[in-house]
Model the fold of this input.
Amino acid sequence: MTDAHPSPWRVVSSQTLLADRWIRLRSDDCEDAQGRRIAPYYVLEPGDWVSVLALDVEGDAIVVEEYRHGAGIVALGTIGGAVDEDEAPIEAACRELREETGCIASRLVDLGATWANFGNHTNRVHHFLALGCVRAGAQLLDDTETIAVYTRPLEGLGEHLTQSYHQLTWFKALDWIGRST
Done:
């Protein structure tokens, strides 16, 4: 065991390498408390995200399946996406639910936020549980989106979700449901 305690690094300099509507990438030149240089240290600055576990009026989960290019797979997941600038996370959750599934919820429960990947991302994932969801119309997908919508039993759903924050949303929802009954 060690008596050393971690402390924040000092940013000596920082340079933006890429900035567009989706993401910012910067390169930091850092120094730790022992004077060691850590450079370059790349930091991604995407906007915050939402992850919504939706339940229909029967209590089944409404999930989406879509292609995820980073992993190169078609995967089952929770509803979600980016929080737009000047948009509250709960508004983004309602919008994404409607866009991706065509559904609206009778109640949205804020399950809290977690860091997306605090090692090199600055954004947070805001987790929501959407209750009493019913179809309100057709999907409102972006031109580049193809999303299939399914209902699945809530029990055991987590083992079919391959993204860690989708699993966390499921787990947080189960915890909230357990405390609310």
User: Anything to note?
Assistant: The chain has two helices and eleven strands.
